[in-house]
Amino acid sequence: MKKIVVFSLVVLFLSCANSETKISGPSATAQIVIESFYEKDEEALKANSTPQAYSNYMNTINMFNATVKDDSNFTVLQDTIMGNVAWVKYTTAYDKTPGLFKLVKQNGKWLADARGSKDKSPF
Fold first, then answer.
1. Three-point CA angle 34, 39, 45, nearest 5°
2. Which pLDDT tens digit goes with each residue over 68-122?
3. Which one, of 50, 97, 92, lies nearest residue 67 by Cα?
4. For the whole model, what pTM was predicted?
């Protein structure tokens, strides 16, 4: 019985430690999109973007060389969710200038969306 309790506590500790460092929600989608953009993974871009955003990415993707990094060093600086719209401000190893994603929730999934000229970032 003692072994089961100890094992359960170890598993609980490890699962809690892992969940604190894992990026989730709209921030996870932003990370997938930025990494797939620079790595030219068009399938992942399409799966995690709205049609308008995907079209925009495809128009600019060939201006960059594919850059595969072992660690993109994706770091969320700020994020906020307002209903079905989220904003994620981030930095990566790909670019030293902070970036900003607008994401929308469609059918329960966060997708990167194109920012319009009237969209105002909350940051």
1. 55
2. 777 889 999 999 999 999 999 999 998 889 999 999 999 999 999 999 888 888 8
3. 92
4. 0.76
